[in-house]
Predict the structure of Histidine triad nucleotide-binding protein.
Amino acid sequence: MSEPSVFERIVAGEIPSTKVFENERVLGIRDIAPQAPVHLLVFPKSGEYPNVSALAAADPALLAEIVAVAQQLADEHCGGQYRLVFNTGSDVGQTVFHVHAHVLGGGLPEGRMA
Ligand code: 5GP
């Protein structure tokens, strides 16, 4: 058994977080180190999928739900204008291997590359 991810520990209540959405399958929280004026994370409560590629292959309905929750949160928190980012792989900066969508909005950060 691998160690539970930080997001599994947040789901379990072992690490505090600021929740912005929750249902049976999906949690939305504020990122602890925001990279934009609005920076939210949306992820499945289950930690079985390390990245969006694995999730898309195994459970496309759950991926669609994550995108729908991201849209709802963007409507609520940043007027429906946002970037949706799934870092996939350590080479591009993924640090938590529990699939999650970054919802970034509220204006452009300085020095944004993509
Ligand atoms: P990644 O680089 O894997 O795509 O993104 C992981 C994200 O999780 C980072 O933006 C990081 O700031 C966020 N993060 C890591 N640990 C915690 C935590 O304990 N609480 C919250 N709210 N966010 C976290």
The chain has a mean pLDDT of 95. The chain has one domain: 6-105. The domain at 6-105 is CATH 3.30.428.10 (HIT family, subunit A).
